Fold these 2 entries.
Entry 1:
Amino acid sequence: MTLYHSATSPYVRKVMVLAHEAGLVDRIALVPASGTPLDPGSVPLEANPLGKVPVLTRPEGGALYDSRVICAYLDALAGDRFYPQGARRWDCLTLEATADGMLDAALSIMYETRLRAEPMRSDAIVAGQWSKIARSVTLLEDRWLAYLAGPLCMGQMALGCALGYLDFRLADRGWRKHAPTLSRWQDEFSARDSMAMTTPPG
Ligand SMILES: N[C@@H](CCC(=O)N[C@@H](CS)C(=O)NCC(=O)O)C(=O)O
């Protein structure tokens, strides 16, 4: 398999964390690729017309995207270990969707503040996107700690990558101050080998 990969992409990181946890890393060749909404750069558009990474090409042919589809595919290859069955399944999927939504909002802030020409930047857009993240952090601190203490699942891996991205790119906004227990969970989760081996470069 070939994974179009960027070391700073939190969505790529989700795939790599799962690959480490599932023991699939040796079966995946990494090809550097990256783009922005302004320029798809080196992302293979014939494989993903959306111009985003991650993209996974399979030995049997056909490219997969986005990160949720790739993670579900890799988990199936590894024997269905990280998307639980029964009631926990829906919690796991909702947690992954929450983490991905936090990432979508964080990326939107990065694009607004780094890509858009200064006179056209909107503080209101940035504030609105940050409020999505802040509400999610509050919800996770208030209602998800018992789930987070349970067996490893893809939702937890996605959350570890989302909170890691906030630390990487938006640390000055101080999400940890408002969620002390979630902050401790993130510290412990980040110590896993799969997270340590995929930390974005300084
Ligand atoms: N929903 C997608 C999001 C992927 C995504 O936004 N990747 C970023 C890199 S972190 C990208 O390639 N952005 C380029 C663009 O938005 O055109 C996923 O889960 O894979």
Entry 2:
Amino acid sequence: MRTTTAYEANLARGPFDAAFFTVMGGYLDWLMRSRKQRVFANLPDEIVELGSGVGANFRYLRPGMRVIAVEPNPAMHARLRARAARHEIGLELHDVVGEQLDLPDASTDMVVSSLVLCTVSDPAQVLAEVRRVLRAGGRYAFVEHVGAKDRPLLRRIQRLVRRPWAWVFEGCSCERDLAEAIAGAGFASVDIEEYRVHSPVLPFNTHLAGIATKGA
Ligand SMILES: C[S@@+](CC[C@H](N)C(=O)[O-])C[C@H]1O[C@@H](n2cnc3c(N)ncnc32)[C@H](O)[C@@H]1O
């Protein structure tokens, strides 16, 4: 495992988030399940996952697969390792941030993430890193929550809660326009579906999912 100084572990929020995603992970996954089933289909035997958290997406993987998990919050690591073992996933844990992947250029065919581009400090830099590490024809599959574009009331609610939301969820923003960020990130093709989930947590309910493919 390698380390980075670019992520400041918070002694309260780090463990809180690890506990939150352990307890709420099943519900969050249920809200996004049909899209995850679509975009996380046909995975190669080895993938890179950004912001793996406590391993919410391991249920979509086959036993025996290898995951290079990029997860900078150390409070997630024990649960992540335990879940990898439970799902018979070969885990290579990288304690770095998505903005500075410690992986060679053109070294993987698949990168995945769920609920991560909302949290990273620089989504454009993360997307540039995803493109850098993908081989020609490689895919980036994502499921993310985003800002409400066409719903002014929801947009206003997202604005109202943005500070406490970001504080609790380690910088997470519920206002980002990630469709534009992904579409403008230089992939050869981008397939994005924008949709809503129906949870009582209104600011969380606007989502997108899709696959971006790197050109030759
Ligand atoms: C909202 S959680 C989602 C976790 C998991 N993917 C899921 O769907 O349950 C965001 C995750 O991204 C991680 N993270 C935060 N900043 C990051 C960064 N700059 N690069 C990569 N991961 C980051 C957090 O530690 C956390 O595990």
